[in-house]
Design a protein that fits this description.
By secondary structure, the chain is of the alpha+beta class. It has one domain: Thiol Ester Dehydrase, Chain A (Roll). It has a five-stranded antiparallel sheet. Strand 3 and strand 4 form a beta hairpin. The termini are far apart.
Length: 172
């Protein structure tokens, strides 16, 4: 008889590589990123709580990636036959941004697949060394006309390889 023995419920196992909900990454440092874009905050970016609204952070992510791709000649927003569509996105917030801060968006590539790229972005306020927010988004590259996935063009793969970092624990 097992009277008096009580077993605690065991939590369901997490898939490999996925942190528990309560686990939180530490803010990255500027040195963790390969390329930077300065972005000026605007008065209208502040919300009623006097800080930059959360949706604006995603705009900063998009601006950092888009400008890089245009600058290096890997994207012509009007004529490129291959374009990136966002398939996944995430942001972690550590401290607030507010107007009139200058944002330095750090950019790196966490993974290059056959037809996708994982962009990782850190947002740094003014001269701060620690990110006030960091996140990622994944572009799946598709044929502009058909919206079907295609392999990354050679030029795109080359310019993204420069930003590629080794996988690390606690990646977003």
């Amino acid at each position: 008889m097992l009277a008096g023995i009580v077993r605690a419920a065991q939590p369901a196992p997490r898939p490999a590589g996925r942190p528990a909900v309560s686990e939180r990454a530490a803010p990255h440092r500027r040195a963790d990123y390969r390329h930077f874009r300065k972005i000026t905050t605007r008065w209208m970016d502040n919300d009623v709580y006097r800080h930059v609204n959360n949706v604006v952070y995603y705009s900063f992510f998009d601006t950092a990636v888009g400008h890089y791709l245009i600058e290096v000649g890997a994207l012509d927003i009007e004529t490129s036959p291959v374009i990136g569509l966002v398939a996944e996105t995430r942001c972690q917030y550590f401290s607030s941004l507010s107007f009139p801060s200058l944002v330095h968006a750090g950019l790196r590539v966490g993974r290059l697949g056959t037809s996708s790229a994982r962009y990782e972005i850190g947002l740094f306020r003014d001269d701060d060394d620690l990110a006030c927010a960091q996140g990622h988004f994944i572009h799946v590259y598709v044929d502009r006309a058909t919206n079907r996935p295609v392999p990354l063009p050679e030029k795109l793969r080359a310019v993204l390889s420069v930003l590629l970092v080794a996988p690390r624990d606690g990646a977003l």
